Amino acid sequence: MSSYLQDIDRSRVPAHVAIVMDGNGRWATQRGLPRTEGHAAGEEALWDTVGGAIDIGVRWLTVFAFSTENWARPPSEVRYLMNFNRDLLRRRRDELHARGVRIRFMGRRNWRIPRSVLQEIRRAEELTRDNAGMTLTIAFNYGGRAEIVDAVRAIARDVREGRLRPSQIDDEEIAARLYRPDMPPPDLWIRTSGEERISNFLLWQSAYSELWFTPVLWPDFTRETLYEAIRDYQKRERRFGGIAED
Length: 246
Ligand code: IPE
Ligand code: IPE
Ligand code: MG
Fold this sequence. Notes:
Order of helices and strands: EHHEHEHEHHEEH
Number of strands: 6
Helix content: 40-55%
CATH architecture: 3-Layer(aba) Sandwich
Bound molecules: 3-methylbut-3-enyl trihydrogen diphosphate, magnesium ion
Shape: globular
CATH topology: Undecaprenyl pyrophosphate synthetase
Number of domains: 1
């Protein structure tokens, strides 16, 4: 294992790292390329990051690949992203499976996603469902507000059908109706490209996440950038509303 891992405390690696992979378009524009070339270049960054996360012992890695708001982009870019994510899964599924990764999706499945993409999602999930290694969750057609809206609808249904009393509604009942209820909240929440906003990513789950922003554009992100974030994370003091322990 390489030397840049030396100053990471291996007993305090964040269990769950979530990343907003942003800046692909700007990366391409800076090079005089079409925006889609930036998305293509992001693939290598993703695999290096996945490998780096596995090597350091991250148990959950969640990446934001397409938001419920990204449908507002030009149809040609949306179409590119749909096909790109489908093909990426096809290309990498076996490799991830061999590394023991459990691939999962989170987002609105039955809304707008082309059938061929859904099919590939299902295949990757089925192939890797029993893997005991890292869980790689791909947030796709995902929006934090949409997720909460869907949870509220599920609660309304349960109340109407007598399975739940309004007085029983609490944090846990809401969390149990999110897309991936068994997913622990992210410890470390990363956004690339210099934008310092949440953009609807894991709204409920990141209530107490440590946020980390970097100007690095996503295609330039590597496992070393991830380790830099983890080193910074290890210097933070998490209080969860309490007071510091000495
Ligand atoms: C992130 O890069 C990828 C997606 C949102 C799908 P962008 O495409 O948002 O790149 P910028 O932010 O325009 O540079
Ligand atoms: C967030 O990035 C979505 C993904 C990375 C998939 P955006 O580029 O869509 O966010 P805004 O528009 O800059 O807030
Ligand atoms: Mg962007």
